[in-house]
Amino acid sequence: MDNNDTTLLASSGDYHQLICYQKTVIVFDLTYWFCERYMERSKDRTVDQMVQAARSGKQNIVEGITDGAASKESELKLLKVAAGSLHELHEDYDDWLRTHQQPIWAKDSVEMKALWAVGKEHSEPEYFMQLVQTRPPQTTANIARGMTEQAIYFLDRLIQSKVKRFLEQGGLKEQMYAARVQYRRQQGWGKNGMNGGNGNN
After folding, report:
1. Which comes out higher in pLDDT, residue 187 or 74?
2. pLDDT of residue 58
3. What is the pLDDT of residue 14?
4. What pTM was computed for the model?
5. Which of 13, 48, 56, 154 has CB 3.0 to 4.6 Å from 19, enough for a Cys bridge?
6. CA-to-CA distance for 108 and 93, rounded, in angstroms?
């Protein structure tokens, strides 16, 4: 998995190359498939909530990065909403596994380490969808839960990087103001907005 800045910090509007976005596509596909196959929508309201949380995690990254060129504040807000949705989904998988008396893979377990290793090599939804076709529901739930953890991890790194850049460079308004100040200095304008010149009318 390539963890350099080109995959952690996409240019504004280009979200497809982001690792966190790629992971949320996997999470959405796995969640939709898991809910359709192993949960009854008519009897369990959690189904719609899980699918919507998975979708929100993905779509808010899309909207945040797309809007980032115009508003860094809006971008950060939407990325944090995406993270909140993924944390909610992660908790739903914990609830399902616990209430069905199934083991939850610990971070240092052999299974989770193997999943993270696979995640370093693959970001294609098709690979993971094929992986769960022959697995029992508890394994599928743990895989989806683990991929949600990966999405959260990379999204948190993205948010931290965005916050750092915002603090260093400011948002669009700050950058436009700095550009105006620099332009006026180059043109010889004084603090009162009038050209310094030689004092002649």
Report:
1. 74
2. 98
3. 77
4. 0.79
5. 154
6. 18
Tokens of 20: 């966190």
Selected residue with higher pLDDT from 173 and 38: 38
Structure token digits, residue 127: 């690979």
How many residues are given for the chain? 201
Yes or no: say if 82 and 64 are a contact pair by the CB < 8 Å rule.
Answer: yes
Q: Which range has the worst mean pLDDT, 53-57, 121-125, 170-174?
A: 170-174
Task: Write the secondary structure of the chain as one string of H (helix), E (strand) and C (coil).
Answer: CCCCHHHHCCCCCCCCCCHHHHHHHHHHHHHHHHHHHHCCCCCCCHHHHHHHHHHHHHHHHHHHHHHCCCCHHHHHHHHHHHHHHHHHHHHHHHHHHHHCCCCCCCCCCHHHHHHHHHHHHCCCHHHHHHHHCCCCHHHHHHHHHHHHHHHHHHHHHHHHHHHHHHHHHCCHHHHHHHHHHHHHHHHCECCCCCECCCCCC
Question: What is the phi/psi pair of residue 16, to 5°?
Answer: -65, -30
Name the residue with tokens 């970001």.
123
Both tokens assigned to 123: 């970001």
CB 194, CB 54: distance < 8 Å: no
Q: CB 128: neighbour CB atoms within 10 A? A: 24
And the tokens for 170?
């400011």
CA pair distance 90, 144, nearest whole angstrom: 9
